[in-house]
Amino acid sequence: MSKYSSVNPKQKVASYIQVSTSNEDQLFSLEAQRRHYKTLIEKNDEWRLVDIYSDEGITGTKRIDDQNCFD
Question: Can you give the pTM of this predicted structure?
């Protein structure tokens, strides 16, 4: 008998969402994107949501790795 489980661990999944400006209507779009990806990821039994990272359009230069998303 193997000491390792035959059950595969869930795949860690993250999402990156963004809008191009910080205008109020764009921030609503950002929240819609957040809800969409949260629901999509949580519906998949093989995935585990790690986090949802976002860029609110305040700067066009912020990179995803600046947010320490894969620590």
Answer: 0.63
The whole-angstrom separation of Cα 38 and Cα 14 is 9
pLDDT in tens, the chain (71 residues): 456 656 779 999 999 998 887 777 777 788 899 999 999 999 999 999 999 999 877 655 555 555 555 55
Residue 71 token pair: 């620590």
**How far apart, in whole angstroms, are the C-alpha atoms of residue 30 and residue 36?**
10
Largest Cα–Cα separation, the chain: 59
Distance CA 69, CA 7 (A): 27
